[in-house]
Specification:
Layout lengths: L2 H4 L1 H10 L4 H5 L4 H21 L6 E6 L13 E6 L5 H14 L7
Antiparallel strand pairs: 1-2
Length: about 110
C-alpha cells in the first residue's frame, strides 16, 4: 500500500487538530513513549491483526503529552488506525484489549 495513503487519517488529524505526526504516534522518539508504544503494539495490534486473519490492517500507537520524553508517562490515548473498514466485532475487540491494557484512559 502507498505510504501516503497508509497514514492519511493520522496525517489529517496532525494537520487539523495539531496532533503529533503519524510517525511520532506509531514510533515515538522518546525512550519512555517508545517503550509504551511497543507494549501497546504487542498487547493490542498483534492480537487484532491475528483476529483479522493476519492482514496487518491496523496500526496502533499512543497519543502522549510529550512523545520526545525519555520518561515513561502514561499516554493520553491509544490510537488505532484501521487501513480498511472493519466489523463491529473488531472494534469491540480493540475496545476490550485497550480496556484490559489499563494504561490509557481513552481509545481513539
Amino acid at each position: 500500500m502507498d505510504q501516503n495513503l497508509k497514514h492519511s487519517l493520522l496525517d489529517k488529524v496532525h494537520k487539523e487538530l495539531g496532533w503529533p505526526e503519524a510517525a511520532e504516534i506509531l514510533k515515538p522518539s522518546g525512550a519512555g513513549s517508545r517503550m509504551l508504544a511497543e507494549l501497546v503494539q504487542r498487547k493490542i495490534q498483534i492480537p487484532l491483526n491475528q483476529k483479522m486473519k493476519g492482514f496487518n490492517d491496523v496500526n496502533i500507537g499512543i497519543l502522549s503529552r510529550n512523545s520526545l520524553s525519555d520518561d515513561t508517562i502514561p499516554p493520553l490515548a491509544i490510537v488505532c488506525e484501521f487501513i480498511r473498514p472493519v466489523s463491529s466485532e473488531i472494534i469491540c475487540e480493540a475496545h476490550r484489549l485497550a480496556w484490559n491494557f489499563s494504561h490509557a484512559p481513552m481509545l481513539i
